[in-house]
Amino acid sequence: MINANFVLFGALLNLIGSSSYAIDTFRGKTKPNRVTWFLWALAPMIAFSAQISGGIGIRSLMTFMVGFGPAIVFIASFMNKKAYWKISKLDIACGVLSVLALILWYLTKNAAVAILLSILADALAGVPTIIKAYKEPETESYNVFFFGAISAAITLLTIEIWTFEVAAFPVYIFAICSLLFVLIFRKQGIQLVKK
To answer: What is the pTM of this model?
Structure first.
């Protein structure tokens, strides 16, 4: 276990990753799925609220940053018309299911259920981007997911007493960021090596 203040370093890494993705979006290099990035901003903020109400403390900063960064990317996607990924029926279906999970959280008012449903909502929101990263990794930037995975790992290393409320969201973020990093980097990394 490392000192809980390392979460601040993880939050900085999240900000660096999200900012680089937002800059790539502004330049038209990256084409974010707006449904995913909007819901990726919303769901973690709900999990963050649940963590705060559950007394999680500084470790909840990672969850806040996981929502704040996508909010920046979502806003950046409107600043360059070329940096827009067309929304499909799958995006809408995942978005509706994600919002339904958030509504169910609201109705339960239970911190553990809120975190679980926020993870479900976040994962459903991510399905379109996971598919896009697999099929067209050149429309994505891997830095945000690399830094997100490191930030989540740092948060996990600070945990003294493992409970669902403390560990679930960082474990999920580590898993999804690692998956997206691998899907995007597998093609872009090969291209970097060839250069």
So the answer is: 0.84
